[in-house]
Amino acid sequence: STQLGAVRIYPASYLGDMFSGAAVAYGEGNLGCTYDFQYTLDTAILWGANPDNTRIPDAHFIWEGKYNGAKIIVITPEFNASARHADLWVPIKPGTDNILAMAVINHIIKNKQYALNSVKTFTDLPFLVRADTKKLLRTTDIKGHDEHHHEWEEQFYFWDNKSKGIVLAPGAEGNKEHKSLRLKDHGYEIDPALEGKWKVKIKDHGHEKEVEVTTVFELLKAEAAKFDPQTYKSVDGNDFQKTTNVNPEIVKILADELTSKNNNKVTVTAGFSLNKYHNGILNIWNIASMVGLSGRYGPRGGMNTENEFSLSGLEVLTGFSGKYNPRFGSGFLGEYMMGDMDREFDKYFRDEDVNRAYNGTLKNKAEFKKILDQMREGSLNGEKGGVKPYWLPDTSIIVADAKMRRNKAAFNDVWLDRTKFFCYVDYRMAYTAMFADILLPAKSHYEVWDLRASPGYHRFVNLAQPAANLKPIGEAMDEWSMFALLAEKLQEIANRPENASKAKVKDDGKDAKGRPLAREGIRDLSIFFDEFTNIDKESDENFEPIIGKNKNRPDVPGDKLALEAALEKTDQFQPHTIEKMYKQGGFLQLNEKAGKNSPLYADRPYNSLENHIFRYERFETMSGRQTYYVDHDVWIQLGVNVNSGREPLAPLDPQKYPYMLMTPHARWSVHSNYKAAKMLLRLQRGKPWVMINNELAKAKGIKDGDEVRIFNELGEFYSMAKVTSSAPIDALVMEDGWDPHFFRGRKHNNLVVPASLSLLEMSEGWGHLKFGGLWDGNQYAYDGAINVEKA
After folding, report:
1. Is the model more confident about 408 or about 759?
2. Cα 643 vs. chain centroid, distance in angstroms?
3. Strands (E), 336-468
4. How far apart are CA 376 and CA 368, in angstroms?
5. Cα separation of 487 and 526, whole Å?
6. Are the beta carbons of 749 and 773 closer than 8 angstroms?
7. Cα separation of 346 and 4, whole Å?
8. Overall pTM surpassing 0.85 (yes/no)
9. Which residues are paired to 213 by β-bridges?
10. What are phi and psi of 516, to 5 degrees?
11. 20 to 30 A Cα–Cα from 119, which one of 128, 310, 317, 428?
12. 8 Å CB contact between 688 and 663
């Protein structure tokens, strides 16, 4: 796709797996620890996580850690497989996690349990904010606008207790002179104030005037006080316990566990489900902010999403020596637009739902849609403008993405109608494959040469290779050879005399970062295969490895050549070859260069952010620190310029649709992969099932094994009831990944799931919140309100 200039979309975004709230906080969504770190903890908090189901090879570290003295706390709506082993289970109401986190933040601040020095050094809580505009105080305010305007926009200020005046904060993006976060590294020692109000002189259009400023900490303290469990009231007038289903005493327990000086290591592991609400960004941002107040970074624990290790050198397989840049599109916005999901939003959500989900800052759908339309047009995305890039393609080549299984009610028909040609690659006849114009049959996972890694979950890379004497099935090919064959045919067609005028395709476009997509402004199809396999002149001059049809090694398949190139060129794989991997059991261990923001030691668990807290390196945020304040215009308008809490968007109607539908990750199968395997069908009752609380089932006349109808205004589907006391009384729980052909009439569970776009995740162009692999948005799966009855 890079070579063609085709659009790739970020899979984490369209799957809803993007930790956007962590990206706000740290500038990096994927961070945390390897699971062996969990063995060393004093307290492990599993928030929306269920490792006994979803991390089966790693979960033993947590339970062995319990034997080692750790306290285990699980916060989930359902009593899941991990909760049954915990010391404390917190049965939270779905989607109210951010409100619970705000209550903990309030308790920590109110009782002064925060780590003072850490907060002053590693967060933006001491930064000054103008009372009149709610904007951070910048150098452009102090000095006005001149040729340094853009640099000054990213310079910020403390109130220094020592000099009794404002002082420039070191480490911010715009502070090129003082990059270190250490407060005494700059020729003087700074003692930032956390609390107080002051008057400062600024320049406003050439005129000097005085404005009042305060700290982000003061604003956070005031906002968090609204979530005190003793006084909290929701938009609908409900108290804290009725809103969250959490006893207020739990707030103190969580705050004490996080901040106790007796606890050397505390980690909060956040599950992917927390992202999958309309306000999921606040779930993760608030949890990260709660953890940051306790000063937990690096070896002291902290936030654990899905850490990633660094792998450099793989661009040899896709980089084309910088000749072409990839063209990326937003996953969540692209899918929303491709499925024309505005219709779903209008049909399903009510004015009162928008009002509740935005805590009264928006009154109705019209106000919401006005802002959304402006953001999509790029006219309301911060001072720098811009909009998340998306395309509406009419031609698609999709590799092993169950697009038509995982999408919402209205998507499939609209997308198929819009798509003129759809090519699908898979190793099985999955549901999505049934709609393809052409299905390219891939080999299965154990018929190809490959390197299997899960960077961040562990530091091992496994070698996959075809079994000896394995005969190919039908026309199945490995993906590498398959696309090399397509590239060869494309080059052949481009070199036919009648196509000479079409072989050089003009491309003067820019990618999401403003870089030209093609270095020469031209994509030369006449050498397409040569470039793809690195046998063109430029690749040869750069000594790039040949990765297809090597005349010197005619019997070696292309996927093995690609594997060898990856082993040779990736620094973190050194010094391994296939032969060395054979000798040590078919795997390699990533070397010390794989550490992303911490050293990767040979003999101890990995954890994130050591480089920041020990070497005082800046975070990849605009402030250079953990972010508690976002002064984007829309965030200010919505009242979340500092951490705040919001209820779910789901239209819970006590008469019509009183229950939420939750679809956590499945046990054993990976989403829909292997779901139809006979052994797994035996473990999963052989057909889709939904967990229903025993009291709810009794009231509805439903018995275990009965077929039930689950429905709302968008649609319906049928499933088998699994009656259990582990399901919450106000929600149904159904593992994800069932292909539609398992259901009656192929009506699957996503037919009752509505679509929406969060205005916060739509934000673009503010500080470090710029479209890319770490900042986009999420598709949501948990904002559907439903009802259930015996079929």
Report:
1. 759
2. 19
3. 395-399, 421-426, 438-441, 450-453, 460-464
4. 12
5. 10
6. no
7. 37
8. yes
9. 130, 198
10. -65, 140
11. 310
12. no
Residue-wise burial string across 565-595, b where 16 or more C-beta atoms lie within 10 A, e elsewhere? bbbebbebbeebebeebeeeeeebebbebbb
Does residue 185 register a pLDDT over 80? Answer: no
Instruction: Decide if 172 contacts 158 (C-beta within 8 A).
Output: no
Enumerate the H helices of 638-750 as residue ranges: 678-683, 694-700
CA atoms within 13 A on the CB side of 534: 22
Side-chain half-sphere exposure of 185, counting CA atoms within 13 A = 14
Helical pair 479-494 and 558-569, crossing angle rounded to 10 deg: 110
User: Can you name the residues that pair with 516 across neighbouring β-strands?
Assistant: 510
Q: Is 259 helix (H, G, I), strand (E, B) or coil?
A: helix
Output phi, psi for 620, to 5 deg: -85, 50
Residue 731 DSSP class: E
- Of 105-109, 179-183, 770-774, give the lowest mean pLDDT range: 770-774
Residues 754 and 409 sit within 8 Å (Cβ to Cβ):
yes
Matching residue, tokens 């009725």: 242
Q: Tokens in use for 485?
A: 């064959």
Query: Which tokens is 178 given?
Result: 């003082």
Percent share of the chain, pLDDT over 90: 76
In this structure, of 256-260, 385-389, 663-667, the range with the lowest mean pLDDT score is 385-389
Helices 248-259, 280-293: axis angle to 10 degrees equals: 50
pLDDT tens digits, one per residue of 288-326: 999 999 999 999 999 999 888 888 887 777 778 788 988
Res. 110 pLDDT band, cuts 50 70 90: very high
* Cβ–Cβ < 8 Å for 215, 194: yes
CA–CA distance, 660 with 273 (Å, rounded to integer) = 13
Q: Which residue has the tokens 């402030």?
A: 623
Cα separation, 618 vs 609, whole angstroms: 10
Q: What is the maximum span of the chain, computed from C-alpha positions, in angstroms?
A: 82
State residue 63 phi and psi, 5-degree precision.
Answer: -75, -30
Taking phi over 0 as left and psi of -120 to 50 as alpha, with beta for the rest, 54 belongs to alpha
Q: What is the pLDDT of residue 383?
A: 45
Beta bridge pairs of residue 670: 673
